[in-house]
Amino acid sequence: MPEELGRINQESLFLGERIRLTALDPETDAETVKAWSKDAEGYAVICSKPPRPLSAGQAKALLQPPETSDSPGQFKFGIHLAADDRLVGLAEVQDVDWRHGGAWLVIKIGAEADRGKGYGTEAMRLLLRFAFEELNLFRVNAKCEGYQVRGTAFLAKMGFREEIRRRAAVYRSGQRWDALIFGLLREQWEAQHA
Question: How far apart are alpha carbons 21 and 66 in whole angstroms?
Fold first, then answer.
């Protein structure tokens, strides 16, 4: 019975109502990421570098899983629709600081048509549960540029608080924007789910 319970918990850990977090497969997921990169806004969502179309090889490199021996603090997931297994985004726990119990979270929904449908909300809920319950972290961080109005509203809705504002730190499309850093403590997250 305990083995079965562990299997059920493991499966439900990565399964939401409409999405699931999966391992990334550079061979099958690269074409989708390559397509996202053709849209400048889509590229800004998946990467902080200047927008440019990615080749299939570049998309595969972006999706490579971190080597466990070299990157024990990196966890990458694909966000797939449960209904048809289509890749709609990427989710990551980055730069885990095991000593102090912190990490950075990233949620990216690639295509404009898939944004605003709640997939990111479900993915963030799963990622937060993974970070706090499985990795036993104390706090998580996320960053967002000032022009990403939906992103800042999303983080606030998920319980994150703005902690740092780096004024005019980002240059995009001929304009300067603030870089915002948000934080969420485990106790705040637990209070939301009590």
Answer: 16
DSSP of 75-108, one letter per residue?
EEEEEEETTT--EEEEEEEEEEETTTTEEEEEEE
Q: How far apart are CA 67 and CA 83, in angstroms?
A: 30
Q: What is the pLDDT of residues 58-113, one digit of tens each?
A: 888 888 876 654 557 899 999 999 999 999 999 999 999 999 999 999 999 999 89
Q: Kindly list the distances between the CA atom of residue 88 and the CA atoms of 18, 33, 82, 112, 140, in Å, as whole numbers in the listed order.
A: 11, 9, 11, 10, 23
Cα-based angle 100, 145, 120 (whole degrees, multiple of 5): 75
User: 2-192 domain in CATH 2.60.40.1090?
Assistant: no
Long-range pairs, 150-157, Cβ under 8 A, ≥24: 150/115, 150/116, 152/180, 152/182, 154/107, 154/120, 154/121, 154/124, 155/182, 156/182, 157/121
Q: Give the model confidence (pLDDT) of 8-51 as tens digits.
A: 455 578 999 999 999 999 999 999 998 888 887 766 666 667 77
Tokens 């902080």 correspond to what residue? 48
